[in-house]
Amino acid sequence: MLSSKTSKAVKAYKENLTETVLEITGIRKEFPGVVALDDVQFRLQKGTVHALMGENGAGKSTLMKIIAGIYTPDKGTIRLRGDEIRFLSPLDALEHGIAMIHQELALMPFMTVAENIWIRREPQNALGIIDHKKMAAQTQELFDRLRILIDPLTEVRFLTVAQRQMVEIAKAVSYESDVLIMDEPTSALTETEVEHLFEIIRELKAHGIGIVYITHKMNELFEIADEFSVFRDGTYVGTHASSEVSRDDIIRMMVGREVTDMFPKIEANIGAPIMEVEGLTLDGVFKDISFQLREGEIIGMAGLVGSGRSNVAETLFGVTPATSGKIKISDQEIVIDSPGKAMAQGMAFLTEDRKETGCFLPLSVRENMQIAALKESYSRYGIVDQQSINKLCVEMETALRIKTPDLDERIENLSGGNQQKALIARWLLTKPRILILDEPTRGIDVGAKAEIHRLVSQLASEGVAIIMISSELPEVLGMSDRIMVMHEGHMTGILDRKDANQVKIMELAAR
Amino acid sequence: MTPLDKTKPAANQRPKLPQELNILSVLIGVAIIFEILGWVIKGQSFLINPQRLTIMILQVSVIGIIAVGVTQVIITGGIDLSSGSVVAMTAMIAMSFAQVGTYARAVYPELTDLPVIVPVAVGLGVGLFAGMINGFLIAKTGIPPFIATLGMMVTARGIAKWYTEGQPVSFPSDDFAAIGDGVWPVVIFLGVALIFHFGLKYTRYGKFTYAIGANPQAARVSGINVQSHIIKVYAVAGLLAGLAGLVTAARAETAQAGMGMMYELDAIAAAVIGGTSLAGGRGRIFGTVIGTIILGLMMSGFTFLRVDAYYQEIVKGGIIVAAVVTDVYRQKKRAKAS
Ligand SMILES: Nc1ncnc2c1ncn2[C@@H]1O[C@H](COP(=O)(O)OP(=O)(O)OP(=O)(O)O)[C@@H](O)[C@H]1O
Ligand SMILES: [Mg+2]
């Protein structure tokens, strides 16, 4: 314990060192039917990382969108380096030195990486024609500095979700702003890339940039954040230095109650093999994948980004049919060349990218939940049995604690985590026998995460066979009966639950 | 997120009015403007004239039938430019199977005085077939709907001309002419609208249509056979264009290759004015019905005010653009929210 004199000196020193870049007070923001933020405050110091914590729908993204000029607040003041400001557009905010990486990726798929990064700021020659060579060179320079290994001239649609995330990060950095907002930048990254991102963040910090960092991952908070603020149901709870609190303290602040252990795996009775995969190959992507999945079993899939895990899942579900290999379901060889065929076999597949292949943004939460189940059931002569499916939707809403004014709200207006929950509900409504989950807890808050783990565990104990891809090793280790590790399109091993640990997995993943 | 006030009924909390209300208010606005202009310019009422209103709605019924089909196409994110030409093609072909035996220059002199079901089935079949070709081209070859249906627009018009080498086909049986008699066109229009209003809302067909328009990739992963559904949607649009062709021919008691000219644009305008988004995933048949009536009111209003036909077209063009601009603006506002 420091004496009060020294601690005072430390405090004075700190005050000298830190300078407030951004200060926000009394912010209120209403959407039709919801108060997203009420009397919220927040301040960001120069050269620090300030984390925002809170449950799904707490208002984190909304607050950041206000700072970045996307929403205008109903009330409250924003001060940038002491001056009161109000941004009218994202462009306005950018020009004042505030850049934001959004929770949902927003790159243009048919443009190259370089074009995406320099959009609206393309280097031009004297005639006003875009100088593509210079643009590529600028991108390469930026990537070199950030140690990103992506070809500036590839079109974005060929990149993995994680690579896209890195491009978004590079793009935000390229604005050389004073304030950088990152809304769940790591939800699609594996540990190696997270480490990479942290290096970038530390460097930016050293250059005096203030960083706002939204995450649901506790360990990241302690590793990278200097201080953090907690929000609950649109209100401000408090700000603390991350060194002075424990994980449990934060969770209590966030949820207002105790949250049980993260991975309450229920031991399930593992039954007969339900799916046998032999030599599954997708030319140029992955090769010779063989495994057996049993009723009630959870197979976790680990590996670095780009190792082909999601590709295998997509092929199993018929999104990109295999070029060779066999899939047997309940001892019958089946050619799965479309998602419809897979679903007819009782399969369900939660995809990784909820914006691209998940949500129907202009449609209601209800329609989003129902759509997959309608394929096989809940309709007679083509007419949907709205009553019975509605009942199930309401059940799902409560079970997964989806935060929405009502089920007729457009899914577009839900927070990222709540969209994810609605998509999980979509596949649960199909009552699958084989459930493939690609990053199921992406963007989901601590409390709800445990809830989803419990749900998955329970499904397994009811005999559902589950394949779960996750970039979070603790999640894979905690949930799986066996862990399949992939590396560059090859399966490098399958570990039993009892033999698996982080070190062994990383060895197989990074061979 | 906190509900504003849990004790208040939900209705008070949400200033979110149904989209239909917007369109209805436009309809009422247009009606009032013409009413006022009527009194100012001609010294008489525009609206209080049942005969005028009957003629108005009769005139737009055919457009309305097409617009219903086009609405569901636009909801999938597509467009159908061929419907006007398909009207002409089906009118010509169907009429050739509906002629009376007493007419000496029938197209098929041996095939006269057939029961009415024959020309009706032929007409619907031709429309359906044209729509299927549209759908097939779009779904299987991946060419843009704009191009595929533009091709059909030219081809179908060509077939209509080639069929009788430009000669009109006339003298239908009384049974066939009855399809276009009195208020039948209106009844058919409203019947079709009603079926599709419920169809899009409560059937799997409808839900899949919206889903494909909202996000085709997600639709595929949700197990929807996107290609075959697209074919169905265009086939249905073709079928309805065929039906519109039957009604047109029956009402005129003749078929000509120039029939249905620009109907596709009126139908698209009706859908867009009615709130269907060209971006896909959004739109309602109710809106389209109101959009159709707005178009009709304007045409009839201009005629009533004796506005020159050239001006009418210019104004109509402006209104279509305005409707699309409103749609784009709505999307933008939504993207920005609040
Ligand atoms: N454009 C909008 N229209 C209506 N409601 C909205 C809109 N944007 C956000 N909301 C609501 O405001 C609340 C706060 O959402 P926000 O996205 O800020 O949450 P979040 O804290 O970022 O959650 P998550 O961790 O899930 O990303 C949510 O309940 C959401 O439904
Ligand atoms: Mg968020």
TrEMBL record, chain A:
One of its GO terms (biological process) is monosaccharide transmembrane transport. Residues 22-258, 257-508 form the ABC transporter domain. Pfam families: ABC_tran. GO terms for cellular component: plasma membrane. It is found in: Cell inner membrane; Cell membrane. It is a peripheral membrane protein. It comes from the Bacteria. Belongs to the ABC transporter superfamily. Keywords: ATP-binding, Cell inner membrane, Cell membrane, Membrane, Nucleotide-binding, Repeat, Sugar transport, Translocase, Transport. Part of an ABC transporter complex involved in carbohydrate import. Could be involved in ribose, galactose and/or methyl galactoside import. Responsible for energy coupling to the transport system. Its main location: membrane. This is Ribose/galactose/methyl galactoside import ATP-binding protein. It catalyses: D-galactose(out) + ATP + H2O = D-galactose(in) + ADP + phosphate + H(+). It is an enzyme of class 7 (translocase). Its EC number is 7.5.2.11. InterPro entries: AAA+_ATPase, ABC_carbohydrate_import_ATPase, ABC_transporter-like_ATP-bd, ABC_transporter-like_CS, P-loop_NTPase. GO terms for molecular function: ABC-type carbohydrate transporter activity; ATP binding; ATP hydrolysis activity.
Automatic annotation (TrEMBL), chain B:
The keyword rRNA-binding does not apply. The chain crosses the membrane at residues 21-41, 53-74, 86-104, 116-139, 146-163, 183-200, 230-249, 285-304. InterPro entries: ABC_transp_permease. Its main location: membrane. CDD domains: TM_PBP1_transp_AraH_like. It is a multi-pass membrane protein. The keyword Transmembrane applies. Keywords: Cell inner membrane, Cell membrane, Membrane, Transmembrane, Transmembrane helix, Transport. It is found in: Cell membrane. It comes from the Bacteria. PANTHER family: ABC TRANSPORTER PERMEASE PROTEIN YPHD-RELATED (PTHR32196:SF21), ABC TRANSPORTER PERMEASE PROTEIN YPHD-RELATED-RELATED (PTHR32196). This is ABC transporter. It comes from Thalassospira xiamenensis.
